[in-house]
Amino acid sequence: VQLVESGGGSVQPGGSLRLSCAAFVFTFSSYAMTWVRQAPGKGLEWVSDISSDGVYTDSADSVKGRFTISRDNAKNSLYLQMNSLKPEETAKYYCVNAEGSWGQGTQVTVSS
């Protein structure tokens, strides 16, 4: 199982980024997927979930209305559209599959 995140970078407060997670070597469409993040010096924080078929999603209250999780099973890919980013959302973002496999993460830095 391999998950590879991309799309991170540096953005000003209020800016947007779209994270991607490419999945290899497993039947991506069979698994619910999750985004989590870890800010410097802090613990892991759940961000958002999506069902295997993409019909059901859920997000942390702190990101509702600003972040959107989605997936394209034909492309074995998971996405996280992040809008109105805040400095406190500076973190490494990880995608995780329902079996507990993790990617290496992609860094998001929100700073003026």
Main traits of this protein?
112 residues; mainly beta; 4-stranded antiparallel beta sheet; 0% helix; 50% strand; globular
Summarize the structure in words.
The chain has 112 residues and is mostly beta strands. It is 0% helix and 50% strand. It has strands at residues 2-6, 9-11, 17-24, 33-38, 44-50, 57-59, 67-72, 77-82, 91-97, 106-110. The strands form two sheets. A six-stranded mixed β-sheet has the order 2-10-9-4-5-6, with no helix packed on it. The chain has a four-stranded antiparallel β-sheet with strand order 1-3-8-7, with no helix packed on it. The radius of gyration is 13 Å and the shape is globular. It starts with a strand and ends with a strand.
Multimerization status: single chain
Show unreliable segments.
none
Instruction: Using the CA coordinates, give the radius of gyration.
Output: 13 Å
Biggest β-sheet: strands ordered side by side in the sheet: 2-10-9-4-5-6
Give the SSE order as H and E letters: EEEEEEEEEE
What percentage of amino acids are in beta strands? over 45%
- DSSP strand tally: 10
In round numbers, the mean pLDDT is 96
Q: How far do the termini sit from each other?
A: 37 Å
Helix/sheet category: mainly beta
Number of helices: 0
Summarize the entry for a quick read.
The chain is mainly β and 112 residues long.
SSE topology sketch:
Blueprint: E1 2-6, E2 9-11, E3 17-24, E4 33-38, E5 44-50, E6 57-59, E7 67-72, E8 77-82, E9 91-97, E10 106-110
Parallel strand pairs: 2-10
Antiparallel strand pairs: 1-3, 3-8, 4-5, 4-9, 5-6, 7-8, 9-10
